[in-house]
Amino acid sequence: MPHTLAQIFTMGALIAACTRADGAPKSDTGTKSAPVAPAAATASGTLASTLHDTISDRADRGRILGDSTAKVWLIMVSDFQCPFCKQWHDASFAKVMADYVTTGKVRLAFLNMPLSMHPYAVPAAEAAMCASVQNKFWPMHDALFATQPHWESLPSPQPVFDSLATAAGVNMPLWRECVTKHLTRPLVQADHDRASSTGVNSTPTFWVIGGGTSTTLDGADANVPAALDAALAKVSGAKK
Fold first, then answer.
1. pTM
2. Half-sphere exposure (Cβ direction) of 166: Cα atoms closer than 13 Å
3. Of the candidates 170, 106, 81, which has an alpha carbon nearest to the alpha carbon of residue 93?
4. Which of 5, 3, 53, 1 is nearest to 190 (CA)?
5. What DSSP string runs through 107-152?
6. Torsion sign, CA atoms 207, 226, 143, 157
7. What is the pLDDT along the chain (240 residues), one digit of tens a residue?
8. Domain total in the chain
């Protein structure tokens, strides 16, 4: 199985599927894969010299959880300022983590799709992805959703993002350099372009990939566990 989201798109493991507004899944067993967005530029300067590979590589790996041998992927296409993304996170994320990811059944990844209607969506995505460079994406992910009603109403959300990053335990000088120089913005844009290229136009959207198929669901009420169970059953059946 691929180890990064870039590899998923490059290897054609993501099978394009149409989304439906009612949140019902639609499965596609074809072989069409999403086009790969242009590679993000390698960062330069103090931060790049500190790290041993590119900023985008680090950020990409940091937003993936789960056993590397898992045969099923769940990719969450999300926007940190989207109230429906927060709704799904608050209601369903922890249970999906406990039942599927920490048990080793499913590999989980986050794909950024900041929507233009949300003025702080891109800065929030950059704050999370700069934390991801230091393998602190998931604490930042949870904190951004937990505090969304607060920071989305401020004249500037950056002081809150700074506080959240500090609490997440990042190296603050390196994180601030990453944010200030927008070193993860190419990856955030590539995420957005990849999602758009498959027909995604709303958040949250979920891709469940495994057993030779990809199922797309959307909306805060999407039945992600049912789609995961179906994919796991296909994988199990293929082994027999």
1. 0.81
2. 6
3. 106
4. 5
5. EEEEEE---TT-TTHHHHHHHHHHHHHTT-HHHHHHHHHHTHHHHT
6. positive
7. 555 666 565 544 444 333 333 334 443 333 233 322 333 333 334 444 444 468 999 999 999 999 999 999 999 999 999 999 999 999 999 999 999 999 999 999 999 999 999 999 999 999 999 999 999 999 999 999 999 999 999 999 999 999 999 999 999 999 999 999 999 999 999 999 999 998 999 999 999 999 888 999 999 999 999 999 999 999 987 665
8. 1
Q: Cα separation of 122 and 130, whole Å? A: 12
Q: What angle do CA 71, 200, 229 make, to 5 degrees?
A: 30
Answer yes or no: are the C-beta atoms of 74 and 106 closer than 8 Å. yes
Ramachandran sector of residue 196 (left: φ over 0; alpha: ψ -120 to 50; beta: rest): alpha
Domain at 26, CATH number: 3.40.30.10
**Res 7: pLDDT:** 59
Burial 12-36 (b: 16+ CB within 10 A, else e): ebbbbbebeeebebebeeeeebbeb
Range of the structural domain that residue 201 is part of: 5-239
Structure tokens at 75: 């990719």
Joined tokens for residue 235:
């994988």
CA pair distance 71, 2, nearest whole angstrom: 10
Rounded Cα gap, residues 131 and 15, in angstroms: 29
